[in-house]
Amino acid sequence: MNQEARANKFSLGRIMVYLFLSLASLCSLFPFYWMFVMATRPSAAYNSIPPTITPGNMLIENFQKVLNAIDFFGAMWNTIILCTVVTVVVLLISSLAGFAFAKFKFPGKNILFVSILLTMVIPPQLGLIPQYYLISKAGLLDTLQGVMILSFLNPLGIFLMRQYVSGSVPDELIEAAKLDGCSNFRIYRSIVLPIILPAFATLGIIVFTAVWGEFLWQFTILRDPDMYTIQVALATLSNTFNIDFGMILSGVFWATVPLIVIFLLFNRLFIASITDGAVK
Length: 280
Hints:
Layout: H1 2-39, H2 59-69, H3 72-103, H4 109-118, H5 128-137, H6 144-148, H7 155-168, H8 171-179, H9 184-195, H10 197-213, H11 216-221, H12 230-235, H13 245-279
Helix pairs in contact: 1-13, 2-13, 3-7, 3-10, 7-10, 10-13
Protein backbone atom coordinates (compact mmCIF):
# COMPACT_ATOMS: atom_id res chain seq x y z
CA MET A 1 0.00 0.00 0.00
CA ASN A 2 2.82 2.35 0.82
CA GLN A 3 4.41 1.81 -2.58
CA GLU A 4 1.04 2.26 -4.29
CA ALA A 5 0.43 5.49 -2.36
CA ARG A 6 3.88 6.80 -3.27
CA ALA A 7 3.27 5.90 -6.93
CA ASN A 8 -0.07 7.72 -6.93
CA LYS A 9 1.49 10.72 -5.22
CA PHE A 10 4.32 10.72 -7.75
CA SER A 11 1.87 10.49 -10.65
CA LEU A 12 -0.25 13.31 -9.21
CA GLY A 13 2.84 15.47 -8.73
CA ARG A 14 3.96 14.82 -12.29
CA ILE A 15 0.51 15.71 -13.61
CA MET A 16 0.55 18.98 -11.65
CA VAL A 17 3.98 19.84 -13.05
CA TYR A 18 2.84 19.14 -16.61
CA LEU A 19 -0.30 21.23 -16.10
CA PHE A 20 1.75 24.13 -14.75
CA LEU A 21 4.26 23.92 -17.62
CA SER A 22 1.44 23.73 -20.16
CA LEU A 23 -0.23 26.79 -18.66
CA ALA A 24 3.07 28.69 -18.61
CA SER A 25 3.68 27.75 -22.25
CA LEU A 26 0.23 28.98 -23.28
CA CYS A 27 0.80 32.27 -21.44
CA SER A 28 4.15 32.69 -23.20
CA LEU A 29 2.73 31.90 -26.64
CA PHE A 30 -0.43 33.96 -26.34
CA PRO A 31 1.21 37.35 -27.19
CA PHE A 32 2.52 35.85 -30.45
CA TYR A 33 -0.91 34.42 -31.23
CA TRP A 34 -2.58 37.75 -30.47
CA MET A 35 -0.07 39.51 -32.72
CA PHE A 36 -0.99 37.10 -35.52
CA VAL A 37 -4.71 37.69 -34.89
CA MET A 38 -4.30 41.47 -35.06
CA ALA A 39 -2.21 41.10 -38.24
CA THR A 40 -5.21 39.46 -39.88
CA ARG A 41 -7.76 42.04 -38.71
CA PRO A 42 -8.58 45.69 -39.52
CA SER A 43 -7.15 48.39 -37.28
CA ALA A 44 -10.46 48.82 -35.43
CA ALA A 45 -10.15 45.32 -33.96
CA TYR A 46 -7.19 46.51 -31.86
CA ASN A 47 -9.48 48.40 -29.46
CA SER A 48 -12.54 46.18 -29.75
CA ILE A 49 -14.39 45.14 -26.58
CA PRO A 50 -14.52 42.21 -25.98
CA PRO A 51 -11.07 41.59 -27.51
CA THR A 52 -10.88 39.70 -30.77
CA ILE A 53 -9.11 36.35 -30.38
CA THR A 54 -9.92 34.64 -33.69
CA PRO A 55 -7.92 35.22 -36.88
CA GLY A 56 -9.42 37.23 -39.73
CA ASN A 57 -8.80 37.25 -43.48
CA MET A 58 -6.72 40.41 -43.95
CA LEU A 59 -3.19 39.06 -43.44
CA ILE A 60 -2.17 39.52 -47.09
CA GLU A 61 -4.00 42.84 -47.39
CA ASN A 62 -2.31 44.29 -44.28
CA PHE A 63 1.08 43.06 -45.43
CA GLN A 64 0.52 44.68 -48.83
CA LYS A 65 0.05 47.97 -46.98
CA VAL A 66 3.41 47.41 -45.29
CA LEU A 67 5.08 46.79 -48.66
CA ASN A 68 3.55 50.00 -50.02
CA ALA A 69 4.74 52.04 -47.05
CA ILE A 70 8.33 50.79 -46.56
CA ASP A 71 11.01 48.78 -48.32
CA PHE A 72 10.29 45.74 -46.15
CA PHE A 73 12.48 43.21 -47.92
CA GLY A 74 15.37 45.67 -48.27
CA ALA A 75 15.23 46.40 -44.54
CA MET A 76 14.97 42.68 -43.82
CA TRP A 77 18.07 42.01 -45.93
CA ASN A 78 20.01 44.75 -44.10
CA THR A 79 18.97 43.23 -40.78
CA ILE A 80 20.00 39.72 -41.81
CA ILE A 81 23.43 40.98 -42.89
CA LEU A 82 23.83 42.96 -39.67
CA CYS A 83 22.78 40.10 -37.38
CA THR A 84 24.80 37.46 -39.24
CA VAL A 85 28.05 39.45 -39.24
CA VAL A 86 27.69 40.50 -35.59
CA THR A 87 26.83 36.94 -34.50
CA VAL A 88 29.78 35.37 -36.33
CA VAL A 89 32.27 37.94 -35.03
CA VAL A 90 30.91 37.76 -31.46
CA LEU A 91 31.13 33.95 -31.48
CA LEU A 92 34.73 34.08 -32.70
CA ILE A 93 35.90 36.78 -30.28
CA SER A 94 33.96 35.41 -27.30
CA SER A 95 35.14 31.84 -27.79
CA LEU A 96 38.77 32.89 -28.18
CA ALA A 97 38.57 35.19 -25.15
CA GLY A 98 36.70 32.57 -23.12
CA PHE A 99 39.32 29.97 -23.99
CA ALA A 100 42.11 32.34 -22.95
CA PHE A 101 40.46 33.29 -19.65
CA ALA A 102 39.62 29.67 -18.83
CA LYS A 103 42.85 27.87 -19.71
CA PHE A 104 45.71 30.37 -19.73
CA LYS A 105 47.52 32.21 -16.97
CA PHE A 106 48.72 35.75 -17.61
CA PRO A 107 49.22 38.88 -15.49
CA GLY A 108 46.05 40.79 -14.69
CA LYS A 109 43.75 38.04 -15.96
CA ASN A 110 41.25 38.27 -13.11
CA ILE A 111 41.21 42.08 -13.11
CA LEU A 112 40.66 42.17 -16.86
CA PHE A 113 37.88 39.58 -16.66
CA VAL A 114 36.11 41.43 -13.85
CA SER A 115 36.45 44.71 -15.76
CA ILE A 116 34.77 43.14 -18.78
CA LEU A 117 31.92 41.85 -16.61
CA LEU A 118 31.44 45.26 -14.99
CA THR A 119 30.63 46.78 -18.37
CA MET A 120 27.39 44.77 -18.33
CA VAL A 121 26.01 46.89 -15.47
CA ILE A 122 26.42 50.14 -17.43
CA PRO A 123 23.17 51.14 -19.18
CA PRO A 124 23.80 51.42 -22.95
CA GLN A 125 21.99 54.78 -23.02
CA LEU A 126 24.83 56.36 -21.03
CA GLY A 127 27.30 55.69 -23.82
CA LEU A 128 25.03 56.79 -26.64
CA ILE A 129 26.47 60.30 -27.11
CA PRO A 130 30.21 59.40 -26.98
CA GLN A 131 29.61 56.36 -29.17
CA TYR A 132 27.73 58.49 -31.70
CA TYR A 133 30.62 60.99 -31.65
CA LEU A 134 33.18 58.25 -32.33
CA ILE A 135 31.15 56.73 -35.15
CA SER A 136 30.62 60.19 -36.66
CA LYS A 137 34.34 60.98 -36.57
CA ALA A 138 35.08 57.62 -38.16
CA GLY A 139 32.71 58.46 -41.04
CA LEU A 140 30.47 55.48 -40.38
CA LEU A 141 27.12 57.21 -39.96
CA ASP A 142 24.33 55.77 -42.13
CA THR A 143 26.27 52.52 -42.57
CA LEU A 144 25.76 49.02 -41.25
CA GLN A 145 29.42 49.00 -40.24
CA GLY A 146 28.72 51.86 -37.85
CA VAL A 147 25.85 49.91 -36.31
CA MET A 148 27.67 46.62 -35.92
CA ILE A 149 31.19 47.65 -34.89
CA LEU A 150 30.27 48.42 -31.28
CA SER A 151 28.52 45.07 -30.87
CA PHE A 152 31.53 42.90 -31.63
CA LEU A 153 32.75 42.80 -28.02
CA ASN A 154 30.08 41.02 -26.00
CA PRO A 155 30.78 40.71 -22.24
CA LEU A 156 27.99 38.17 -21.75
CA GLY A 157 29.39 36.04 -24.56
CA ILE A 158 32.88 36.09 -23.07
CA PHE A 159 31.48 35.10 -19.66
CA LEU A 160 29.38 32.25 -21.07
CA MET A 161 32.25 30.88 -23.14
CA ARG A 162 34.69 31.12 -20.27
CA GLN A 163 32.35 29.18 -17.98
CA TYR A 164 31.58 26.55 -20.60
CA VAL A 165 35.22 26.01 -21.57
CA SER A 166 36.21 25.75 -17.90
CA GLY A 167 33.69 22.99 -17.25
CA SER A 168 33.78 21.11 -20.56
CA VAL A 169 37.39 21.10 -21.75
CA PRO A 170 39.73 19.04 -19.50
CA ASP A 171 43.12 20.54 -18.74
CA GLU A 172 44.70 17.13 -19.38
CA LEU A 173 43.43 17.17 -22.95
CA ILE A 174 45.03 20.53 -23.63
CA GLU A 175 48.31 19.47 -22.00
CA ALA A 176 48.37 16.32 -24.15
CA ALA A 177 47.83 18.41 -27.27
CA LYS A 178 50.69 20.73 -26.29
CA LEU A 179 52.96 17.72 -25.83
CA ASP A 180 52.08 16.64 -29.35
CA GLY A 181 53.25 20.03 -30.62
CA CYS A 182 49.89 21.70 -31.22
CA SER A 183 49.83 25.48 -31.22
CA ASN A 184 47.28 27.35 -29.12
CA PHE A 185 45.17 28.15 -32.15
CA ARG A 186 45.34 24.51 -33.31
CA ILE A 187 44.12 23.44 -29.88
CA TYR A 188 41.27 25.94 -30.12
CA ARG A 189 40.31 24.86 -33.62
CA SER A 190 40.66 21.08 -33.27
CA ILE A 191 39.78 20.45 -29.62
CA VAL A 192 37.96 23.36 -28.01
CA LEU A 193 35.70 24.35 -30.90
CA PRO A 194 34.02 20.94 -31.40
CA ILE A 195 33.39 20.61 -27.64
CA ILE A 196 31.78 24.04 -27.21
CA LEU A 197 29.48 23.73 -30.24
CA PRO A 198 26.31 23.60 -28.07
CA ALA A 199 27.41 26.79 -26.30
CA PHE A 200 28.00 28.31 -29.74
CA ALA A 201 24.38 27.65 -30.64
CA THR A 202 23.12 29.12 -27.37
CA LEU A 203 25.19 32.28 -27.64
CA GLY A 204 24.45 32.58 -31.34
CA ILE A 205 20.70 32.57 -30.73
CA ILE A 206 21.06 35.09 -27.89
CA VAL A 207 23.20 37.49 -29.94
CA PHE A 208 21.18 37.13 -33.15
CA THR A 209 17.86 37.85 -31.43
CA ALA A 210 19.35 40.71 -29.38
CA VAL A 211 20.74 42.46 -32.47
CA TRP A 212 17.54 41.78 -34.41
CA GLY A 213 15.42 43.41 -31.72
CA GLU A 214 17.74 46.31 -30.90
CA PHE A 215 16.29 49.69 -31.87
CA LEU A 216 17.83 52.70 -30.12
CA TRP A 217 21.37 52.48 -31.54
CA GLN A 218 20.15 51.55 -35.03
CA PHE A 219 17.67 54.44 -35.01
CA THR A 220 20.42 56.82 -33.87
CA ILE A 221 22.93 55.87 -36.55
CA LEU A 222 20.75 55.18 -39.59
CA ARG A 223 19.03 58.04 -41.43
CA ASP A 224 19.16 56.83 -45.03
CA PRO A 225 16.01 54.76 -45.80
CA ASP A 226 18.11 52.48 -48.01
CA MET A 227 20.12 51.46 -44.93
CA TYR A 228 17.21 50.98 -42.55
CA THR A 229 17.04 47.77 -40.56
CA ILE A 230 13.66 46.15 -40.06
CA GLN A 231 13.17 47.69 -36.59
CA VAL A 232 13.82 51.22 -37.84
CA ALA A 233 11.69 50.67 -40.95
CA LEU A 234 8.76 49.39 -38.88
CA ALA A 235 9.07 52.39 -36.56
CA THR A 236 8.36 54.70 -39.50
CA LEU A 237 4.95 53.08 -39.95
CA SER A 238 3.62 54.84 -36.84
CA ASN A 239 4.75 58.36 -37.76
CA THR A 240 1.18 59.44 -38.55
CA PHE A 241 -1.84 60.52 -36.53
CA ASN A 242 -3.98 57.73 -37.97
CA ILE A 243 -2.12 54.58 -36.93
CA ASP A 244 -3.08 51.39 -38.76
CA PHE A 245 -2.46 48.73 -36.11
CA GLY A 246 -3.32 45.90 -38.49
CA MET A 247 -0.61 47.05 -40.89
CA ILE A 248 1.98 47.56 -38.13
CA LEU A 249 1.36 44.20 -36.47
CA SER A 250 1.40 42.49 -39.86
CA GLY A 251 4.89 43.90 -40.42
CA VAL A 252 5.94 42.87 -36.92
CA PHE A 253 4.57 39.36 -37.47
CA TRP A 254 6.51 38.81 -40.69
CA ALA A 255 9.62 40.34 -39.13
CA THR A 256 9.38 37.77 -36.32
CA VAL A 257 9.21 34.75 -38.63
CA PRO A 258 13.01 34.60 -39.33
CA LEU A 259 13.71 34.49 -35.58
CA ILE A 260 11.39 31.52 -35.19
CA VAL A 261 13.12 29.78 -38.10
CA ILE A 262 16.56 30.41 -36.57
CA PHE A 263 15.46 28.96 -33.24
CA LEU A 264 13.92 25.88 -34.86
CA LEU A 265 17.10 25.24 -36.81
CA PHE A 266 19.36 25.42 -33.75
CA ASN A 267 17.04 24.39 -30.91
CA ARG A 268 18.62 20.94 -30.57
CA LEU A 269 22.03 22.44 -29.90
CA PHE A 270 20.43 25.03 -27.63
CA ILE A 271 18.70 22.33 -25.56
CA ALA A 272 21.88 20.23 -25.58
CA SER A 273 23.79 23.13 -24.04
CA ILE A 274 21.18 23.50 -21.27
CA THR A 275 20.96 19.78 -20.48
CA ASP A 276 24.75 19.45 -20.57
CA GLY A 277 25.04 22.14 -17.91
CA ALA A 278 22.29 20.49 -15.86
CA VAL A 279 24.04 17.09 -15.98
CA LYS A 280 27.30 18.66 -14.85
